[in-house]
Amino acid sequence: MKAIDLVWISACLALAAAPLDWPYGYYQLLRVMISVIAVFLAIRSWRPGSRAWTWGLAAMALIYNPLAPLSLGRELWTIVNGVSVAVLVMHWWATERQRGAT
């Protein structure tokens, strides 16, 4: 396992744990963590001719942006978190496939 894999794993675990009953500080930390990870992965995904992952991850960073937070209900955040986990897993899978091709 590479160190970068821990980025995906930690983000997915944090998002998966979000539906549990946490203090508000957890959700503030989650926003910061996911937005930083999304920006980091977006920058790593920047490739000429193929920028879909970059724009998708940049959109995720904006959704979780802690400076101008979106005010969604708990139910909607649960859906957004689930979709975010799916996006991160797909990005990890695509990156692994690309690593294996080189």
Mean pLDDT over all positions: 88
> What portion of residues is helical?
over 70%
Q: Which parts are unreliable, with pLDDT below 50 for 5 consecutive residues or more?
A: none
Which value, in Å, is the CA radius of gyration?
Answer: 14 Å
Oligomer: single chain
Task: Characterize the largest beta sheet: strand count, sense, and whether it forms a barrel.
Answer: none
State the secondary-structure class: mainly alpha
The geometry reads as globular
Strand content: under 5%
Tell me the series of helices and strands, N- to C-terminal. HHHH
Count, helices:
4
Number of strands: 0
Distance from first to last alpha carbon:
17 Å
As for the number of domains, it is 1
Care to describe what's here?
The structure is a single chain. With 102 residues, this protein is an all-alpha fold. The protein has one domain (3-101). It is 75% helix and 0% strand. It has helices at residues 3-17, 24-45, 52-63, 74-101. α1 (3-17) packs antiparallel against α4. The longest helix has 28 residues, at 74-101. The mean pLDDT is 88.
